[in-house]
Design goal:
Strands 1, 2, 3, 4, 5, 6, 7, 8 and 9 form a nine-stranded mixed beta sheet that branches. The chain is α/β, with parallel strands linked by helices. It is globular. Helix 4 runs parallel beside helix 5. It has nine helices and nine strands. This is Phosphatidylinositol specific phospholipase C X domain containing 2. InterPro entries: PI-PLC_domain, PLC-like_Pdiesterase_TIM-brl, PLCXD1/2/3, PLipase_C_PInositol-sp_X_dom.
Length: 294
């Protein structure tokens, strides 16, 4: 795996708090906010079972070839090489989160997941909260949009966890256009949680998923991705929701087969950069939420 990009530090750790008053008074949906895709996958556990988000044949191969198969999966499961803290320091404020229980594990513990299991969700949330404690004017968007092997008890556990970790930092669900940085600072709110599951309905601290659509190009071709981003930006809702532009290339089965030993960075990202689409850096790839025209 390649090392982290040179020069990353804390220079962007307080960019929201440093905005001029003209921008802090604008609805947040009118600001372009950098985000990351599969935000948690800077580490995955090769010792844990293959995740329930994978197809049956992938699970079969992992069972037959064990660690060899998982080492290949690591190259295609890790979409970041920066921790939550490092992403926050770099200016990332939108996080794409996919979570799962471990089938067969007793209790209701929840983990981040993308093919393989990552860290416990609680550990990631605490890391984000620790950053927010030291940067009182920064606001993050937590987009919980995929859930696997989770029953009612798991959702109860996760929702309670969010409330326990963030407490009064959670911004209550309300009219999107009313949310500005000035509003958040006045309320001392720093976290907007989107919960794409019926379990979150009725909880004032959770925003429904339809308030942050994230159309997905699902392509390996840079030109098709650009066309998709341009068309979806034109069609985004004018009122009542934020919007995510996913500037990412997505590997398919034949992509993985062709680049078996390469992985996401070497096979897709370097092609993207060569195609003059540097925003597609998939090892620290960026989604953009609340976009204005690019």
């Amino acid at each position: 795996m390649k090392t982290r990009p040179a020069g990353l530090g804390t220079i962007n750790a307080d960019w929201m708090g440093s905005l001029p008053s003209k921008l802090s008074a604008l609805p947040l949906k009118q600001l372009a906010v950098p985000g990351s895709h599969d935000s948690f996958t800077f580490w995955v556990d090769v010792r844990a079972p293959v995740g329930p988000d994978q197809k049956v044949y992938v699970k079969y191969l992992a069972t037959m070839f064990s660690m060899v198969a998982k080492k290949v999966m690591v190259k295609w499961s890790m979409t970041q090489n920066l921790t939550f803290k490092e992403q926050l320091d770099a200016g990332i404020r939108y996080f794409d989160l996919r979570v799962s229980s471990k089938p067969g594990e007793p209790g209701t513990e929840i983990y981040f997941i993308h093919g393989l299991f990552g860290h416990k969700v609680r550990d990631g949330l605490k890391e984000i909260n620790s950053f927010l404690e030291g940067h009182r004017k920064e606001v993050v968007f937590l987009d919980f949009n995929h859930y696997y092997s989770m029953g009612t008890e798991h959702h109860v556990y996760l929702i309670r966890m969010l409330q326990d970790v963030f407490g009064n930092k959670l911004c209550k669900n309300c009219m999107v256009e009313s949310i500005t940085l000035d509003y958040m600072w006045e309320k001392k709110n720093q976290v907007i949680v989107f919960y794409h599951h019926p379990s979150g309905c009725g909880n004032p601290a959770l925003w429904p998923g339809h308030k942050i659509p994230a159309p997905w190009a699902n392509t390996t071709e840079p030109n098709k991705l650009i066309q998709f981003l341009q068309s979806t930006l034109k069609k985004r809702e004018k009122q009542g929701s934020f919007h995510v532009s996913q500037a990412i290339l997505t590997p398919r089965v034949n992509t993985v087969a062709k680049g078996l030993l390469w992985g996401l960075r070497n096979y897709l990202v370097e092609r993207s950069v060569a195609a003059d689409l540097c925003v597609l850096e998939h090892k620290c790839d960026f989604s953009e939420v609340n976009t204005m025209p690019l």
